[in-house]
């Protein structure tokens, strides 16, 4: 019952008008083939694949789920055929290096592709999606032999990859990892241990699965300082890719989950499985951050995908569902009632979904340009500068966009009313599927501690100040516009944005001072601080979209209503969404004593 149409117009508006992707690509000769004509063709072909092949499997895959039988996992009907079409279409190789069989196109285009496939069918998209992190990790930290053996086949899609961090006794606290790695004396290691919650850990889509595994060497230091990273294939392979015997990696079970039921979440047992060290000894967590950042941005994208799918279907329903009359008089007198889209509360939910989807997409596409810069960095300093920018915004994207994606999905269910609660309409599935995004790759609370504790307070706000300078430079440039009419129109966005940025910096300083006398301040304020940060960052991108829309309207354009709609959406965001920062400011600055003063034994008298 669900429908999906790739939002090509919105995507092109961002890449062409707001973020100037083609000027960005011209900085790198490696991206010279990413011309407007080629990109346009890619967008439309990916849209066809997503709409026609993946969407029809979304609800059926949820209903059927994955099948587990004595260690083997079978994906739902149609998944394997769709994966083969994905490979045949060259989608797996789109944005990976030419040297290893990729097409050499920018990673930012790969992000656009991932948005379309993920919105159409997130569970299916997770199978190839996990491979991107494995590829990036091997490409960044692997040696030449590892790249030659693993990268080409991962890029081709004949093998897929996973990330194996979590164990039964530890999730976020990876210092508790117990999986062992015993050296064999020939450069290989025997890996023994159990990993849980491994997305795409076992399936029938490819002939081999390459696991990126955290484990401890003998006599390694305790805690996170003693973790190393290993490549462990499911099936042993010769250097030419010829597959051999089983590598003693078995699937003990797959989880029965609330959502994303068509994505196999596996318990994997490693029983003296042969692995290779990737990166330096005891530096595994640092190397794994390459994978984790990729995964966190991908998870942030899930928030946008959930919101977009919920919005598109909510809009269709709200235009068709008849209930009561408009408070300002009949809008459709020939009907027995007006469609529910005429009611302000329904309109508020739809507009909230719309600005979350389009604002979130802008945040992702902005970040995708930074990923391009990292991939093309010519010096360590260039890489570090871009990586610092990415490191600052990643926890905001991951937590803020997934929380808002879940909110948007719930608005969709509410718009559908009772039908939203019924499986056949698909809205409850979006809600269930969206919910996991706030949990995996680090919960909202973990991302918030990373942002406030590590990225703000430990660096004395350097990354925040750098980002703030960028935003304030945009505000200053728009306030000096020679076109006075244009300037007055933009002031409705520029002044609130400038004030929000100044307050953001001030609150971070005040929290830093308060934390010096009470460390609980960081934990009590962090989630509200992150959400505050997210609303301010999204406001920056809505201001940019409004600016680009005004610029387009000054010239000759075919679809003037499209750009007018962007401006009206920006107005809604600034009047209805950005003010949420006021309550967040109050709660994040509140004394943590009300959280901590009640003794844990007095929380319940059962």
Automatic annotation (TrEMBL):
> What keywords are annotated for this sequence in UniProt?
FAD, Flavoprotein, Oxidoreductase
Cite the Pfam families for this sequence: Acyl-CoA_dh_1 (PF00441), Acyl-CoA_dh_C (PF12806), Acyl-CoA_dh_M (PF02770), Acyl-CoA_dh_N (PF02771)
Protein family: Belongs to the acyl-CoA dehydrogenase family.
Taxonomically, the superkingdom here is Bacteria
Q: Which PANTHER family match?
A: ACYL-COA DEHYDROGENASE, BROAD-SPECIFICITY LINEAR ACYL-COA DEHYDROGENASE FADE5
Q: Which cofactor does it need?
A: FAD
Q: What is the source species? A: Colwellia echini
Task: Enumerate the spans annotated as Acyl-CoA dehydrogenase/oxidase N-terminal domain.
Answer: 41-157
| Domain (Acyl-CoA dehydrogenase/oxidase C-terminal) ranges | 282-450
Protein's recorded name? Acyl-CoA dehydrogenase
Residues forming the Acyl-CoA oxidase/dehydrogenase middle domain are: 163-272
Coiled coil ranges: none
- Where the record annotates domain Acetyl-CoA dehydrogenase-like C-terminal, the positions are 468-599
